[in-house]
Amino acid sequence: MVNPATEEVIDEYLSTDASSVDAALRNAALGQREWASLRLSDRRDGLRAIADMVTEHIDELASLESLDVGKPISRARNEIASVAQAFHYYSGMVDKICGSTIPVDGGIDMTFREPLGVVAVIAPWNFPLAVASWNAAAALAAGNAVVVKPAEDTPLSTRRFAELMATQNLPEHLVQVVLGPGPTVGEMLTSHPLVRKISFTGSTKTGKAVMRSAADTMKRLTLELGGKSASIIFADSDLERAIAEAPMGVFDNTGQDCCARSRILVERTVFTDFVDGFIAATAELRIGAPADEMTELGPLASRLHHERVQAFLDPVEGAVVAGEIPDGPGFWMAPHIVIEPDRRSAIVNEEVFGPVAVVLPFDDEEDAIELANSTIYGLSGSIWTSNLGRALRVAQRVESGTLSVNSNTSVRLQTPFGGFKESGFGRELGMAAIDGYTELKNVFIAT
Ligand code: NAD
């Protein structure tokens, strides 16, 4: 692995080989049986203990995340805090996974929610331990065992998490980590008959490959994929606040965020005011060393990714570059703002996954909705307005799994998260995630 801020090699590892992946899955199947047969209170306490373990090691795990991904340390700490919060949240769910009774003729009918068995969690490099553990916590609460594969470039935090898990008083092999590239080690998971479900977070292209590979063994799938989310800013909004919050709405995590509001749609009458304010507010973001507590934006995560983002920018003319990057090595890129590009261009329609925002004017509500829905994605988005009726009217018509009004936030542990269209399907987080980690069994008793 390479430190994205300095280009220094920080560590090396060997990929897990096929027989070790197979052994991990067989052991996980044994661990799952033991876990599912524990008393509910023991499972609840087990998840709480994981939360406490993460809290005790928050600085260490956050430092690893910051080093590996180039993430500002203050942000990394928040992400690791969310790992502990997820285990706490789902510890409370263990004894609240209910079936129902259904009125029928001739007897009594009831449903049960049963664990699936072994769940494979395949995680991306932008929020490595956070995404992996949000999914793992829900899977464990429902009585499953978990095998996690972090992205090949960013395994440090997840590898350390696995070492810490081995010190916990939990069934052996309940949570395991396998390391290596997606097309080899990831594929071993997506095709292995012992894996009952794949919880995949990554790009839409890889999501399609995972779906194909998982088809032969009919695995359950949750696919959390790419996005090109729109922030729709109406003239009747609190423009000052919309401007102040827009830079981190798109450039947070250096734009490597599936929910980044990378398309900012602004009502034509306030377009110029917005653009001027947005450029000025973006130029104030502090770009610098990830270890510095004051840093707001770090480098991009890898050389290859820097090249990918640059390839999107190369054909674009007249992008405004706001902010300055540090001198010297590192995969740095300042925020780029592309004003009123062609609505059909790649920069408007494809996921760049870097510090690039496009700003487009719209004429009225109808135009804004059409523009918001004009990509293959439907993950997140925002509506900025002071008119409640308009907020709800527009929210009902934007094709997106998550929307916020007068806010650019997307993820809360308590609420369902997932995509429409090619942003994927299934829901993580909240109580809704439990449906995806259980089978629904129906039992009829003749009376
Ligand atoms: P990616 O698709 O390249 O990789 C994701 C994971 O899949 C990695 O662990 C990788 O090793 C693995 N993988 C790759 N090929 C595989 C294969 N053939 N079989 C099995 N596994 C395979 O994505 P990335 O570049 O790591 O992450 C960026 C993408 O993730 C962006 O598109 C972003 O929008 C998306 N993302 C989505 C969410 C969400 O919740 N919707 C969250 C974070 C990131």
Walk me through what this model shows.
The protein has a seven-stranded mixed beta sheet with strand order 10-11-12-9-8-13-14, with helices on both faces. A six-stranded mixed beta sheet has the order 5-4-3-6-7-15, sandwiched between helices. The relative contact order is 0.14. The chain is globular. It is built from 15 helices and 16 strands. Helix 3 (58-69) packs antiparallel against helix 6. It starts with 17 loop residues before the first helix and ends with a strand. The chain folds into two domains: 18-225 and 423-446, Aldehyde Dehydrogenase, Chain A, domain 1 (3-Layer(aba) Sandwich); 230-405, 3-Layer(aba) Sandwich (Aldehyde Dehydrogenase, Chain A, domain 2), CATH 3.40.309. The protein has 447 residues and is of the alpha/beta class. The model has no long low-confidence stretch (mean pLDDT 98). Nicotinamide-adenine-dinucleotide (NAD) binds at residues 122-127, 131, 149, 151-152, 181-183, 186-187, 190, 201-203, 206, 209-210, 224-227, 258, 351, 353, 379, 419, 424.
